[in-house]
Amino acid sequence: MSYDLYFYRRDPGQSWDDALDAAPGALEPDLRAWDGIVAGARGLLGEVRIVEYPPNWELDHEGTGISVNHWEGGWEMSVPYRTHGEEARQVVGLLYEVASVVERESGFECFDPQLGLPKAQVADPGAAVPVFDAVADQFGRRGTANA
């Protein structure tokens, strides 16, 4: 299980509902955006593992579990539900910072399905912490380090 972020390319004036309902089309891989995302992620996270198998690429950060994926022209991010409380707030803050890099470099816009909002409308990424806490409660992991 993971906390996911998805990226969409919206046409000018297109609503989020229409963008979310639209069937994803075939997109061209964007290696230039990928290079910028890798550089930006390294600037925020430090060392990351890169797996390249064009037209797909994956970036993973061991310490946080943050993953950035480029699948046949589309973008998505995830982080496992292994933290809660203040630690989850820090991880989600980093997740959102890397998401800003993906938005800037790719031209796509980020949507947070757990909150039901585009990232641009999330005033505080800490709003995601209750989701992490609920998962920790569900699996009885509160009170254990890095559960």
Structure at a glance:
The chain has 147 residues and is α+β, with helices and mostly antiparallel strands. Helix content is 36%, strand content 24%.
Name the strands of the widest sheet in spatial order. 2-3-4-5-1-6-7
Overall number of structural domains: 1
Average the pLDDT over all residues and give the rounded result: 88
Low-pLDDT stretches are none
Structure description:
- Strands 2-3-4-5-1-6-7 form a seven-stranded antiparallel β-sheet.
- It has one domain.
- It is an alpha+beta fold.
- The protein has helices spanning 16-21, 31-45, 85-106, 129-138, and strands at 2-8, 49-53, 56-60, 67-71, 74-80, 109-112, 117-118.
- α2 (31-45) packs antiparallel against α3.
- The chain is globular and about 45 Å long.
